[in-house]
């Protein structure tokens, strides 16, 4: 609580100063000093160094999803359902334009977020074990719950997967990324934000248990298979950070460097359950790291590659890592036991391996992945590592999903003019058998099946959007649940059991 209280004291001081001086003091006395304008009008919520506080960090790396024109609109009009009020009656058009340009510029000095800052940021609302063990709501199956991330106004909806009805809706940190990760019991879920915040949420009690800020710009988090640890992967600074999962206490701080001292951003971190380890993808060094935890300390094993790798996929036994090369033209297969590259894959168009899925086809295991830059889906034999088929799609895709009990795989075409369409693939014929257009002109994306593979959810990715419920066999629409730009949906059972049709 120390961090939160001290921050509110700072906010009160800055706001009081602004109130005494009048809203346009910056225009009168510092017309050309946008930095001072920022300190007056924005620092109370976003921090004097733009690192964030009650509001998100305002740095180029953290604003990657927000167009400049959209940011200017937020400054002018505010953001609904948040503490961000509009400045159209406080600042003139030039000041708003100057502030918009300012937050998209790199800071003039080096930003620091180390062990001390991480420890000071931690907030524990309910120490582990202090909340009741029985849910405060009634459902038939706690394993068939969904969490739906609504990026339009930064909220999350808890959904009953049997009745397909919302149970509860709660605010999240700004720009959740990488998908929420469940503990093995399905009660606790961990969210990671672009701003580096990790939030532990108790689904049973509908309460935030604890939070900690692991970095300035974070890619994603992973939870160990036994539920004891959380690992954070950062772009800024170049670090991996290990936490105790109970109360998010920091256990280890790992600068990401090679033997020559070159540092790297971390593209992502994954859990490898059969290996009791984490696997990290590095953005700027041709290595993959396997991290085990011994005596609450991280032990790093470096696996070197001949090329920079940007995205990872794993076979079901976590014997092999499949990585996409940064050149966007091929991939490699690496043995996780030996660390050696055992095969290369022709994968033009930058595959989105993090969204890949697997299934059984003619007695063998295959994997399929969409591509960011090509209208294609590659289907690969996981014994021979040969591409056995390339499906042509209506555009580059982002997400693929299926379920062990379903005949079909679903793939969006998120990028390009046909983003309102979604393809349905027969997993036994390897053909697109149907193309849906659920809401013409609005992006359709990210399918997630229920626990049993009988129903599925599809997002209409729009502020005035919805979750569409489909019958997984008949492919018929059953109902729509209005939501604010819903993105990912995450079923408890599928995620904690690493169901073959969902991302891990």
Automatic annotation (TrEMBL):
Gene Ontology MF: a single term: heme binding
N-terminal signal peptide: 1-26
SUPFAM superfamilies membership: C-terminal (heme d1) domain of cytochrome cd1-nitrite reductase, Cytochrome c
Sequence ranges assigned to domain Cytochrome c in this UniProt record: 17-107
Pfam hit, one: Cytochrom_D1
InterPro entries: Cyt_c-like_dom, Cyt_c-like_dom_sf, Cyt_cd1_C_sf, Haem_d1_sf, Host-pathogen_enzymatic-act
Keywords: Heme, Iron, Metal-binding, Signal
Keyword Iron: yes
Keyword Methyltransferase tagged: no
PROSITE patterns registered for this protein in UniProt: CYTC
Gene3D superfamilies: C-terminal (heme d1) domain of cytochrome cd1-nitrite reductase, Cytochrome c-like domain
Alphabetized PANTHER family for the sequence: DIHYDRO-HEME D1 DEHYDROGENASE, PROTEIN NIRF
Protein name, as recorded: Cytochrome c, mono-and diheme variants
Biological source species: Marinobacter persicus
Phylogenetic classification of the source organism: Bacteria, Pseudomonadati, Pseudomonadota, Gammaproteobacteria, Pseudomonadales
